């Protein structure tokens, strides 16, 4: 949905034509940190220390390489790679103390048919249910936090998760939390029923636009600064 909003043609390349893209070093670093933090919460509370997280790093990276051996060519300097990962984990421990609370779910799969033709699903990095029943949805980002004024756009993803959880479980999450490890900043928001209803309306509208694009096979290009990072620029009609 994000791709379609940014550029319908990009959505077509990725979701309809299923064109392959080379792995991105930043995305792979993100996956590594996510898997370390996921496993960290499998340990008993007292063992969820910075040192344990560091110990998990090489094991998780080995597993990632086994699944995608071509990644080895992306990492030219092992020390630099692990130093950067360590710095992100250092930032994580400056923001949270995982030994002081229990996390209920990691990589929780949420799904729902939001209409007869639109199925929506996603994986939540972490969802914590407090002993009092309050729900917190957490997403880790290994990049830097958005500039002032752009937080709302970033929170949209978490509002979608909150909407799915609310509709499936009947519990309105109390807190949404984006943890930016790139610059040690947390963006928080308390979702309201009105916000989540408006999120649902936006999702339905985007879903309907995607269905129309599929029916008419019309996926217009939308030039923006994102084009400079788009792998498909070389074949995109807007640039050729
Ligand atoms: S290069 Fe730009 S316009 Fe073309 S598909 Fe990519 S994002 Fe869209």
Automatic annotation (TrEMBL):
<keyword id="KW-0347">Helicase</keyword>
<keyword id="KW-0547">Nucleotide-binding</keyword>
<dbReference type="GO" id="GO:0004386">
    <property type="term" value="F:helicase activity"/>
</dbReference>
<dbReference type="InterPro" id="IPR011335">
    <property type="entry name" value="Restrct_endonuc-II-like"/>
</dbReference>
<dbReference type="Pfam" id="PF12705">
    <property type="entry name" value="PDDEXK_1"/>
</dbReference>
<feature type="domain" description="PD-(D/E)XK endonuclease-like">
    <location>
        <begin position="2"/>
        <end position="237"/>
    </location>
</feature>
<dbReference type="GO" id="GO:0006281">
    <property type="term" value="P:DNA repair"/>
</dbReference>
<keyword id="KW-0234">DNA repair</keyword>
<keyword id="KW-0269">Exonuclease</keyword>
<dbReference type="GO" id="GO:0004527">
    <property type="term" value="F:exonuclease activity"/>
</dbReference>
<protein>
    <submittedName>
        <fullName>Putative RecB family exonuclease</fullName>
    </submittedName>
</protein>
<keyword id="KW-0227">DNA damage</keyword>
<dbReference type="InterPro" id="IPR038726">
    <property type="entry name" value="PDDEXK_AddAB-type"/>
</dbReference>
<keyword id="KW-0540">Nuclease</keyword>
<keyword id="KW-0067">ATP-binding</keyword>
<keyword id="KW-0378">Hydrolase</keyword>
<dbReference type="InterPro" id="IPR011604">
    <property type="entry name" value="PDDEXK-like_dom_sf"/>
</dbReference>
């Amino acid at each position: 949905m994000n791709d379609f909003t940014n550029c319908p043609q990009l959505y077509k390349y990725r979701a309809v034509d299923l064109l392959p893209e080379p792995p991105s070093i930043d995305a792979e670093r993100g996956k590594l940190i996510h898997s370390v933090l996921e496993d960290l919460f499998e340990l008993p509370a007292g063992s969820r220390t910075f040192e344990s997280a560091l110990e998990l790093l090489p094991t998780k990276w080995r597993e990632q390489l086994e699944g995608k051996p071509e990644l080895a060519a992306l990492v030219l300097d092992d020390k630099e790679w692990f130093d950067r990962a360590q710095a992100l984990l250092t930032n994580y421990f400056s923001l949270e103390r995982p030994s002081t609370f229990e996390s209920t779910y990691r990589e929780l799969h949420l799904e729902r048919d939001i209409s007869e033709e639109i199925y929506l699903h996603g994986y939540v990095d972490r969802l914590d249910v407090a002993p009092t029943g309050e729900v917190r949805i957490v997403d880790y980002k290994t990049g830097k936090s958005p500039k002032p004024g752009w937080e709302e756009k970033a929170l949209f993803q978490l509002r979608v998760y909150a909407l799915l959880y609310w509709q499936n479980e009947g519990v309105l999450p109390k807190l949404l939390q984006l943890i930016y490890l790139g610059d040690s900043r947390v963006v928080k928001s308390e979702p309201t029923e009105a916000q989540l209803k408006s999120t649902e309306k936006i999702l339905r509208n985007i879903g309907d636009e995607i269905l129309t694009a599929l029916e008419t096979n019309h996926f217009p290009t939308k030039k923006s600064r994102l084009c400079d990072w788009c792998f498909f620029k070389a074949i995109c009609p807007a640039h050729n």
